[in-house]
Amino acid sequence: MVREIASEPFDLLQGPLYRVNLLRRAPDDHVFVFTIHHAIGDGWTLGLFVQELCLAYIQRARGMKDPLPVVPQTYSAWGAVERAFWQPSELQPRIAFWKSHLAGYRRLWSALEGPVTASGSHVRLVSHFPAELAKASRELARRSSATLFSTLLVAFQVAFARWAKTDDVLVGTPVANRTKQVTKETMGYYAGIVPIRGPVNVEKTFSASLREMHQKTADCFANAIPFAELAQALGDAGAPGHNPIFEIRFALQNHPIPDVALPGLSAKLRMRSTGTARYHLACEVTEEGEQLEVVWLFRPQLFQQAEVENLGRLFESVLATACRTPEARVAALTESSS
């Protein structure tokens, strides 16, 4: 029932672009389902919504009026500021960076027979990296003066390169775009997407690859521009069922998620993306307590489930081996995962 509710299409012309359902399973057991279209909210928005929903519930239960704080800046006001900022003088140096960064990249699946339907079906797989591996990954990132994102990304690139038989891996990764305090307190779709290219050199060590990728991700984030502007500048509008610029999405979801604390109630929070497969392949890692949840989303027209399951095992194996022996050559990491 929840999946059916969440999968029901929105009317983008008439709206609204969100739905609220309360399902009764027993007199003392209910499921509150909040569904939102990505056009009006991102992952950070969901955290804010949960926080304010809990606050409103508590305050209403106490008989207080107007319980929610005043929004510091409307989403439309932020949009106006953004449009005014992105003038040619700001765009051109960044566009030059991207043309250099992406020069010569060849799509992996450019020879598909016919278009993949953009609204086509997808398959979703979920696994977990154990707490010990998550802890070791964070420790490796700390010792390397890198981030957990960079550490996971390099391991993913190494695994994917072996799996897809390539040495040039391009992914798109979301960025929150909430550096200012006012944006951290406002609901809306602020997130952007940044392409990150990682040539995989099997002769380098994992630690050297991590140092390079950490700097590369910093450069990419510093040169981020609206994705539509980037696609236009590169002359890559995509095609039906084929995303512009990149085909693979990789993300680490670590935006703040508040605890659900409601007096008199016992509640558990579950967040899930139910969108169609906008990319050929997506890997989303979420910090879930001490573990790392890994969600794969892929188009069955292109991949068998067993193939993606193999990629998932390879990703975990490469990461675990790198955490134990970060000075090992990349080739050795994949050989041990054969």
UniProtKB/TrEMBL annotation:
Q: Which Pfam families match?
A: Condensation
Which SUPFAM superfamilies would you find in this protein's record?
A: CoA-dependent acyltransferases
Per the record, the domain of life is Bacteria
What's a GO cellular component annotated to this UniProt protein?
Answer: cytosol
- One Gene Ontology term of the molecular function aspect: 2,3-dihydroxybenzoate-serine ligase activity
Any single GO BP term: amino acid activation for nonribosomal peptide biosynthetic process
Q: Residue limits of the Condensation domain?
A: 3-333
Q: What is this protein called?
A: Condensation domain protein
